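Deliverable D4.2, example record:
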Amino acid sequence: MDEEYDAIVLGTGLKECILSGMLSVSGKKVLHIDRNKYYGGESASITPLGELFTKFGAPQPDETYGRDRDWNVDLIPKFLMANGQLVKLLIHTGVTRYLEFKSVEGSYVYNSGKISKVPVDQKEALASDLLGMFEKRRFRNFLIYIQDVKEDDPRTWKDCDPHQLTMQQLYNKFGLDKNTQDFTGHALALYRDDDYLLQPAILTVRRIKLYSDSLARYGKSPYLYPMYGLGELPQGFARLSAIYGGTYMLDKPIDEIIFENGKVNGVRSGTEVAKCKQIYCDPSYVPDKVKKTGQVIRCICLMDHPIPNTKDALSTQIIIPQKQVGRKSDIYVSLVSYTHQVAAKGWFVAMVSTTVETSNPEIEIKPGLDLLGPIRQKFVSVSDYYEPTEDGKESQIFISKSYDATTHFETTCLDVLDIFRRGTGEDFDFSKVKLDLGDEEQ
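Output generated by the structure prediction step:
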């Protein structure tokens, strides 16, 4: 350990593992340390099932749950956008060779007391029960506009310059009602609140394009999920880092982060010291450099049936936009099952999550739980949400945010790319990655 590194990464949460891979690919000498014996940090996958029950202080599961080791339950499940940044990174870096993905079967939105499939193309818009007859036409025209827009070609803007108009103005141009705006912003563009309405429309146009491009890749929904759960992802990126020369150490306590003249200089574990120019880490390693900005409630639900009204989908996402239930933040529901090798045959794992707004968080997720039907076992956790208090440029310590309530990876990717930009002074260059990693594993 007594060497000098360009960067030391602390923690093996998914964000830290992605950063470690990106930094290694960019030619940096990286040391990656975690105090835990396992990958994943707070975003780990728990196996066997008995361990999950133990973690939440519940009596051990009986034999009706099938084989204990067939379970692999994510503490913070998230789906990947098929055409999103994380999948691009996985493909570009060759990490996909270690992983197998399955398409998520359905994408739904809660509206007026029931769930409906999210319409993403003209055909679905015309068939959707979310929209009245005249609204269907308006929404169809809106989707055609989105599909045709090319950012740098004014001829495709049709008198609606998406760089100049706010999103609210663009909605108004197409005469879309509040209901349509609601599911478009939250279930298609995946915004968590309505601040986006006052921002340039181009930002939302990009997000809707990402959704429809992702959907076009596999058809059933825009989302993918790895077989055996998300725990496979950090390990994939760890392998990537190792291929590019990164060094990994698990089960290694960090006793001190060493500073010199206000700048990071290294880390100490026992009597060993590793020198470095930069540190990348999760909030738990630097409690004095983060602030709590909120809380997230998550409820893991084990069920022996799919979610009602989803055509018996074996995996799905449901978004409950905040206005539909009189809240400030959306509620997210995700479902995976035995088809992803994360549960015993015939079993399903649902997750309901949201940003905490009251002193009684469990009541806040009730609209999500009510959609699930009978629940055999549930595990509730409330986590603090931390953000760094500095950008890291002075101290050279770059800290990730905690994981939010969303059930997709888009916000996670934005955080990782932002940290990389702050730490290196440049955007990550996807073209630097060897497209084929050769036969190093043969």
